[in-house]
């Protein structure tokens, strides 16, 4: 029991092929075009090369999808709502992450009693079976959960359909963030983007950060929970969980994909997202509960806000990141 839960602490999970087909979700016509993302990303990469900048370009693939990750999550797609199963630690993480999201959103804009997040439009990226999507919907938010693993989205839909209160406010689509396409104006963005325990499974974090910034309204919030890149996270997440205790299959986690709060903050700020707070989270494998801690050495939660003004761009019509700002960071 201990080892199983210990493993879940930092463990990744895994999944299948992405599907894109998202239109007019939550009455949103996104001001986001994947074609323009690709174009801007290419320009950015070219500019970065020209400037010999220090930002590490994790991938020029322009997709966040790592097919191996999707295969692993695909195999677990029916397990999301087993509270004592593989995703138990994610269930109990709601004790911290739901109030973290709620309270930070209410700091930006007041809420109504009973349904404090009524009127907020939230995008839950990498929602899996909807473990976090549902409680956000119950707080009154209109939530779109997206995940490239179709079977996970199927599980999420079936589960939320049992609650009539959620049917009106929670929707799911099998797609990635970069698949979100459409046309619209500035009002069409999300009030918040949530990516909880997701970034450590992505192939390209820069594309992800860029897309997050694009789908957010100015002043909108980004919430991320993830794993730090430390000796401790390597020892517990890779050595203990995978090699010694064999809690998860070898290779479940790629420590290289973990990221420190400082590096994540630098990346987000280069895409016009200002980090407001970073808090350490600690999992107790005996109680199965999470608590806040001063240390961000293993798990942490981050809140960033999209600045009202876009970062400086190199062309008048450009809507992408500023290469000079990137270079400076
Ligand atoms: C550890 S689970 C977290 C699920 C959910 N956020 C939660 O905390 O309950 C990671 C999720 O990220 C999804 N994922 C993997 N690659 C992704 C990508 N490129 N874009 C969006 N989601 C992705 C997986 O399918 C999986 O559902």
Textual characterization of the structure:
The longest helix is centred in the first third of the chain and has 21 residues, at 88-108. The protein has an 8-stranded mixed sheet. Strand 4, helix 8 (205-215) and strand 5 (216-227) form a beta-alpha-beta unit. It has a single domain, classed as Vaccinia Virus protein VP39 (Rossmann fold, 3-Layer(aba) Sandwich), CATH 3.40.50.150. With 329 residues, it is of the alpha/beta class. Mean pLDDT is 78; it is low at 1-35, 44-60, 182-186 and 313-329. It has 11 helices and 8 strands. 46% of the residues are buried. The structure holds S-adenosylmethionine. S-adenosylmethionine binds at residues 12-13, 15, 64-65, 69-70, 73, 90, 125-128, 131-132, 147-149, 152, 176-177, 196-198, 201-202.
Number of helices: 11
Radius of gyration: 19 Å
Give the uncertain stretches in residue-range form: 1-35, 44-60, 182-186, 313-329
Principal-axis shape equals: globular
Summarize the helix and strand pattern as letters.
Answer: HHHHEHEHHEEHEHHEEEH
* Strand order, sheet with most strands: 3-2-1-4-5-8-6-7
Compute the average pLDDT: 78
The count of strands amounts to 8
What structural class do helix, strand and pairing data support? alpha/beta
Associated small molecules: S-adenosylmethionine
Structural domains: how many: 1
Write out the CATH superfamily name: Vaccinia Virus protein VP39
> What is the CATH domain class?
Alpha Beta
Q: What is the CATH T-level topology?
A: Rossmann fold
The biggest sheet amounts to:
8 strands, mixed
Percent in strands: 15-25%
